[in-house]
Automatic annotation (TrEMBL), chain A:
ABC transporter domain segment(s): 19-251
Alphabetical list of InterPro entries matching this protein: AAA+_ATPase (IPR003593), ABC_transporter-like_ATP-bd (IPR003439), ABC_transporter-like_CS (IPR017871), ABC_transpr_LolD-like (IPR015854), MacB-like_ATP-bd (IPR017911), P-loop_NTPase (IPR027417)
GO molecular function, one term: ATP binding
The protein, known as: ABC transporter ATP-binding protein
TrEMBL record, chain B:
Annotated family: Belongs to the ABC-4 integral membrane protein family.
PANTHER family: ABC TRANSPORTER PERMEASE YTRF, MEMBRANE COMPONENT OF TRANSPORTER-RELATED
Assigned keywords, A-Z: Cell membrane, Membrane, Transmembrane, Transmembrane helix
Molecular functions per Gene Ontology: transmembrane transporter activity
Protein's UniProt name: FtsX-like permease family protein
Location(s), subcellular: Cell membrane
Pfam hit, one: MacB_PCD
Organism field: Streptomonospora mangrovi
Keyword GTP-binding attached: no
Top-rank taxon: Bacteria
Key word Nucleus present: no
Chief localization: membrane
Residue intervals passing through the bilayer: 16-36, 255-278, 298-326, 346-369, 402-420, 432-461, 482-502, 704-737, 758-791, 803-822
Length: 255, 837
């Protein structure tokens, strides 16, 4: 608790929150053995901020992200995306919400194997029958550095390239928030750095709100802010992190 | 290894359910056929054995001779001390009249006598015991429309009517003669009086107390002269049972032919399932190899799995087959003269073992190839992450393309040969061979065909939005898998559409033939007598000619001349009242029918034997040989086959023939159909045995026969289609399983559950439609080829309605096949799937 108190000093709030979770609780399992994966978590994310969620394995990072993104239902508490209380939405409305207002980057298996890189990038737009702005597509493709590889199948791309395709896809629809679950978990450090740098730039330059789950202090250092989870509870938070400060907090957390 | 396999089976049992069903359905057909025909055979032989075993000695005319046994012999047998009682069976023709007073059937009914003892018993009511009583064969009573208690008339040899009261019904079982002709059962006295026959077709005897059947036979044999065969009742029963068994055998052969189709389709489905399972478990197999399993052990583990699945599914299939046979026998037994269907089912070990073996071996053989492929898994594959790379094989080798082209080319050559030289049976064999080659060609080409079909359908699918576009991409991502699933359906589709084409073409051809060659309202002919000939009395023709309601009457007379005491082998005919070439037409080889006149004849190709128009032909007549000039040559299959003369020449050549064999009647222009019918009925009132067929009846009869065969064959081929659809459902289900994470990703990206379901449904529809289209193309082509090769002058008719219906069924089947896999895919939790849980 002491660490939490230390981190709870007044913080700058540059913009109104895009995503806000309040008293989020998620319990897995039925009678007998239950797992409290999230325990009354309240957290919010501001527009244009790049936030990392950290914590030891099993602390509930992925669960938090899934609940924030409307991929999973919550046991209690609320999640707002803008003015929408997504915890009240039905499956169908959630699907449309994900399609139109949220971008995703997963740790692995981000791409459909039978579609080319470009087709994968355009997939959400195709599902939504949305027109894509060719200029925006060209710019994103250029920034992500995929120009030559656009017409390759995922199996012909390296892991880093695959993740960059996924990031391009997440950004193309100009979503209100991009969720990334360990986007660099499967990458070597150089490819990881490329992807992370790219996520940071999109937050700084495009004003894109990004929430990233990671257990890597180096990755977390790319973010503007890091929140720490342990046993399903929000226990700490750092602004303007460096790899050292993050590692430092983690060591304290696990002790 | 065994334990690993069984554990794997338990884990994957869901994936094998549909495969098991495919095997079970095939085996069900085999087992059902075997049990059904065994039961049929048993109930046939129970019938005949039961009736024959009551006799100790039976005397029959020897060999094929129909010469009756003399009445004196019966007296001698009765006087034998070894014999308790004996009775002769009269069996000869006596036409039964239906309630309208017309003779029943194209052949006169048989009069069969029963006395004491008799092999026959009444199935309902009682046997006759007075001379004015009669029982009817159950089938005869049904066709003629008689019930117990009715009165009926039977004609005697002089055409006099005898009135009898119907006291009962007799099941004759499989007696082909009774089957064709029908039977009236009379007392011995009534039977010999009505038929005018003095002797017996059979004498049945029961031995005296303490005398064995063999002794009785010996005693009877001693009094019976040569030309008489004496056997025990048991021997007679066995003989009859054998004869009945032949019927059951031929039915078994026909049914098994269709069962084989189902089993082949099941084999294709099994092969595909195991191929997919092996591909999906590549890493598992590689891991086994890593920890030291030898190739043989990996092979054995897959084969073992196939063995377990094959055995279990076959056992299920045998049970289902027994149930099917029971239902089939209850429903169809009576129609097959096997009695009322109360007979117990006959389960021979052979039937059960054969069915089990067929199912298990088919499964093993089908799984062998995938199992072999499994052994080539390199141990290193375990270490590779194949999430993304799985199942993307878009190449088609040149070898494949070339081999397919060669096969299809060879098939096309064979067909063009068969079509160019129509030769009946042989042509059919050539076409069948070509069909098999073409089918193999299609199998070889199938991955290519799938891709072509998807490419063709893709623009259409894209119109349906993201689901459609994704479905198109999915359908071609693994062409070989899709192709095998498709080919299974193609088998059934080919056979069904091929048969539909033949059926429609035959129907068109008979309709056309009836229209062109028989443009008449009624055809009158005599009930055939013993020699297979018979005539319509001249006064009938005369009365019809006089009737104002009748427009034209064409009466034909024919003779079968002999040369030096042996048949000359052709028919000589004339058509009185016909203007040849106008009222009566025919296909022509050469010349013109209207040129036939005095001294000038029309002949068929065989009679012409190479002669041409204007040549002279010598015809045997009852006044010796006569020469005619050939005016026209018709095909041997023409209704004007043989030699056709003008009436004056015919009368001079065969003065003894004064009656007509058939009379063709057309109503007058202004006469109502009702009036024409009345005129015909009036002319025939005194001639009950003359057969009347209205052309509309004849057409309905042809159509009825064709339609019944069509339905039966469709039902049997339908099972092959059902199995193939199971295969497609299975392929889809396995693909869905493999693509759980893909589905989750799509859902995370905003694809609605409904859209996901539509995507999978479209994928299945594309497969089914492709399989059906390829099958329809093959079927139409080979149906046409078979028809043309076998029947010259076949009018090709495309059954568009049936084919459209079949394609619609294929689409519906695709939708149905996708229901369960799609449900499963749409229900899966996104987060669990993404986490790989
Ligand atoms: N679908 C599930 N069913 C049951 N328990 C789950 C499920 N998903 C996660 N958990 C449990 O919830 C806790 C948090 O999991 P998760 O959010 O995946 O952790 P992290 O991503 O931080 O490693 C863990 O104890 C995990 O075992
Ligand atoms: Mg996690």
């Amino acid at each position: 608790m002491s660490e939490y108190a230390a981190a709870a000093a007044p913080q700058p709030s540059p913009a109104p929150p895009v995503v806000a979770a309040r008293d989020l609780t998620k319990v897995y399992g039925g009678a007998g053995s239950t797992v409290r994966a999230l325990d009354e978590v309240s957290v919010s994310f501001s527009r244009g901020a790049f936030t990392a969620i950290m914590g030891p394995s099993g602390s509930g990072k992925s669960t938090l992200m899934h609940c924030l993104a409307g991929l999973d239902t919550v046991t209690s508490g609320t999640v707002h995306l803008g003015d929408t209380e997504i915890t009240r939405l039905k499956d169908r409305e959630l699907t449309l919400l994900r399609r139109d207002r949220i971008g995703f980057v997963f740790q692995s298996f981000n791409l459909l194997p039978m579609l080319t890189a470009e087709q994968n990038i355009l997939l959400p737009a195709r599902i939504a029958r949305r027109r894509t702005d060719p200029a925006r597509l060209a710019r994103i493709v250029e920034v992500v550095g995929l120009g030559k590889r656009l017409h390759h199948l995922p199996s012909a791309l390296s892991g880093g390239q695959q993740q960059r395709v996924a990031v391009a896809r997440a950004l193309l629809g100009d979503p209100e928030v991009v969720y990334a679950d360990e986007p660099t978990g499967n990458l070597d450090s150089r490819s990881g750095a490329e992807v992370l740098g790219f996520l940071r730039d999109s937050a700084r330059e495009l004003g894109q709100t990004v929430v990233m789950v990671t257990h890597d202090p180096v990755a977390a250092a790319y973010a503007d802010r890091v929140v720490f989870l342990r046993d399903g509870r929000l226990v700490d938070e750092v602004y303007g992190p460096t790899a050292e400060t993050v590692l430092d907090r983690l060591v304290k957390l696990e002790s | 290894m065994l334990r690993t396999t069984l554990a794997g089976l338990r884990l994957h049992k869901g994936r094998l359910v549909t495969t098991a069903l495919a095997i079970a359905l095939g085996v069900m057909f085999v087992a059902g056929t075997l049990v059904f025909t065994d039961t049929l055979r048993a109930s046939y032989s129970a019938q005949v054995m039961g009736s024959a075993e009551r006799m100790d000695a039976v005397a029959l005319p020897e060999g094929e001779s129909e010469r009756p046994l003399p009445p004196g012999l019966l007296e001698e047998i009765r006087d034998l001390p070894e014999i308790d009682r004996a009775e002769g069976m009269v069996r000869a023709e006596a036409p039964l009249l239906d309630p309208d007073g017309r003779a029943v059937g194209t052949l006169p009914t048989l009069a069969v006598s029963v006395g004491d003892p008799s092999r026959y018993t009444a199935a309902q009511g009682e046997l006759p015991d007075a001379d004015d009583e009669a029982a009817l064969a159950t089938s005869t009573a049904e066709t003629a429309g008689y019930a117990i208690g009715d009165t009926a008339e039977v004609l005697d040899a002089d055409g006099e009517r005898h009135t009898v009261t119907i006291t009962g019904l007799v099941d004759f079982g499989v007696d082909p003669q009774v089957g064709y002709q029908g039977a009236v059962v009379l007392t011995p006295e009534a039977a010999s009086r009505v038929t005018g026959v003095e002797g017996f077709a059979e004498i049945d005897a029961v031995a005296a107390e303490g005398v064995s059947a063999e002794e009785a036979v010996a005693a009877v044999d001693a009094v019976a002269g040569s030309g008489t065969e004496v056997i025990t009742g048991r021997t007679l029963g066995e003989r009859l049972a054998d004869r009945a068994g032949v019927e059951a055998d031929s039915m078994a052969t026909a049914l098994l032919l269709f069962a084989v189709v189902s089993v082949v389709v099941a084999a294709i489905v099994i092969q595909n399932t195991f191929a997919i399972l092996v591909a999906q478990r590549r890493r598992e197999m590689a891991l086994l190899r890593c920890v030291g399993a030898r190739r043989g052990q990996v092979f054995a583990s897959v084969v073992l799995e196939a063995l377990v699945v094959g055995l279990a599914a076959s056992a299920l299939g045998v049970l289902a087959g027994i149930a099917l046979a029971a239902v089939g026998f209850r429903v169809g037994g009576e129609a097959l003269d096997a009695g009322t269907g109360a007979a117990p089912l006959v389960l021979t070990p052979t039937a059960v073992l054969v069915s089990l073996a067929v199912g298990t071996l088919t499964t093993l053989v089908a799984a062998a190839l995938p199992a072999r492929r499994a052994t080539f898994t390199p141990p290193l594959a375990a270490l590779r992450d194949s999430d993304v790379a799985t199942g993307l094989d878009r190449r088609t080798g040149w070898l494949r393309t070339g081999a397919g082209a060669v096969l299809l080319g060879a098939s096309a050559l064979l067909v063009s040969y068969a079509v160019a030289t129509p030769s009946g049976q042989q042509g059919l064999v050539v076409v069948a061979l070509a069909g098999i080659l073409a089918f193999i060609g299609v199998v070889v080409w199938s991955p290519l065909l799938v891709r072509l079909a998807v490419a063709a359908l893709a623009p259409l699918l894209r119109l349906l939005g993201a689901s459609g576009a994704l479905a198109a991409d999915n359908a071609r991502r693994n062409p070989r898998r899709a192709a095998t699933a498709m080919v299974a359906l193609t088998v059934g589709a080919t056979l069904i559409s091929g048969y539909s084409v033949i059926n429609a073409s035959m129907q068109a051809t008979t309709d056309d033939m009836l229209d062109r060659q028989f443009p008449f309202d009624y055809q009158l002919s005599a009930q055939l007598d013993g020699e297979g000939t018979g005539t319509v009395p001249a006064e009938v023709t005369a009365e019809l000619r006089d009737s104002p309601a009748v427009g034209s009457v064409i009466a034909d007379r024919s003779a079968f001349p002999e040369a030096e005491g042996r048949p000359a082998g052709y028919r000589v005919a004339t058509y009185r009242g016909a203007d040849l070439g106008r009222d009566l037409e025919s296909e022509m080889v050469a010349g013109d029918l209207s040129d036939v006149g005095p001294g000038r004849a029309a002949v068929d190709e065989e009679v012409a034997a190479g002669r041409g128009i204007g040549d002279t032909i010598t015809v045997e007549t009852s006044r010796g040989e006569r020469d005619f000039e050939i005016a026209a040559i018709v095909p041997t299959s023409s209704q004007l086959w043989g030699v056709t003369l003008v009436p004056r020449d015919f009368a001079a050549a065969f003065p003894e023939i004064t009656e007509d064999s058939t009379v063709l009647v057309t109503g007058a222009e202004d006469a109502e159909p009702r009036e024409v019918r009345a005129a015909v009925d009036a002319a025939l009132a005194d001639h009950p045995t003359v057969q009347v067929v209205s052309m509309s009846d004849m057409r309905a009869q042809f159509d009825g026969v064709l339609a019944a065969a069509f339905l039966a064959i469709m039902a049997m081929l339908g099972l092959a289609v059902v199995i193939a659809v199971f295969g497609i459902a299975n392929t889809l289900a396995l693909s869905v399983l493999e693509r759980t994470r893909e589905s989750a990703l799509l859902r995370a990206l905003g694809l609605r559950r409904g859209q996901l379901r539509v995507m999978l449904a479209l994928e299945a529809v594309v497969l089914c439609l492709t399989g059906a289209l390829v099958g329809v193309a093959l079927g139409v082509f080979f149906g046409w080829a078979a028809g043309v090769a076998v029947l010259r002058g076949l009018i090709f008719q495309l059954p568009t309605g049936q084919i459209a219906a079949f394609l619609a069924i294929a689409v519906a089947a695709g939708l149905l096949a996708s229901v369960l896999p799609a449900r499963r895919a749409a229900r899966a939790s996104i987060t669990a799937a993404m986490a790989g849980r």
